[in-house]
Amino acid sequence: MRLAKHLAHAGVASRRAAEALIAQGRVTVDGERVLDPARDVRGEEAIAVDGRSVGTAEGRRVVYAVHKPAGVVSTARDTHGRRTVVDLVPAGGERLYPVGRLDADTTGLILLTNDGDLANRLTHPRYEVPKTYVATVTGGRIAPSSLRRLRDGVELDDGRTSPAGVRQLGPGELELTLREGRKRQVRRMCAAVGHPVSALRRVAFGPLRLGDLPEGGHRRLSAAEVERLRKAPAEPREPPRAPRA
Ligand code: URA
After folding, report:
1. Per-residue buried b or exposed e for 78-89, using 16+ beta carbons within 10 Å of the residue's own CB
2. pTM of the predicted model, to two decimals?
């Protein structure tokens, strides 16, 4: 892996900033100053920035589950000075980034990590990692025909939605599991069948559930949980049913 990419994965800086650190002569590999950001490293070398070891990328990767409250934005930094999900996790020296986005008014499970590779795999549309939401909707009980539309695909202005898992939990409460993540997708789907969302909470991301993590709270995931997340993108979707002969 390129040295600049390795530093970015280790949470030291963005790729661009890591290239600048290297060009400024501030990075050593096994004690030798390296000026080439494309220098190939295996992650086993002793790498230091300004003389401080960054360790191996493996040892420093962290993933946190955060229960995002409403009104907190899920970008790493907000240009309007609003509180971000990153502010909810006390600084431990790593530079954390949210894995995907939730609307400011959505609550629930969001992951933060300094592992760019994992974040990419969990959010890339190709991997279709399922995310589950509980939506409180207006308009009372949802007709079976509306549930069917939500499951089979709803026509939105950016195209038809993919098949989704949808259950009515009670009058005006739906659980939806989506394998895609378009902007305000759950809100737009529910509005399209005549039941606008009044509250939305994400309760699961891949194999990980929000559980009883209190609103505004966070916890670092165990190595086993990170491993299960890492495998989530590889889990095959159920094959389509063979047509009857
Ligand atoms: N769908 C939405 O409409 N909003 C979210 O925040 C996440 C999914």
Report:
1. eeeeeebbbebb
2. 0.75
**Mean pLDDT of successive 10-residue segments in the chain (245 residues)?**
85 85 90 90 78 62 94 88 92 84 97 92 91 96 96 98 96 96 97 98 97 96 91 66 56
115 is catalytic: no
Nearest residue by C-alpha to atom 2 in ligand 1: 184
Ligand 1, atom nearest to 103 Cα:
6
Domain containing 46 — which CATH number? Answer: 3.10.290.10
Domains contained in the chain, number: 3
Distance 106 CA to ligand 1 centre (A): 7
What whole-number distance in Å separates Cα of residue 173 and Cα of residue 164? 16
User: Is residue 185 assigned to a domain?
Assistant: yes
Structure token digits, residue 127: 């991997």
User: Of all atoms in ligand 1, which is nearest to the CA of residue 187?
Assistant: 3
For residue 164, give its domain range.
130-205
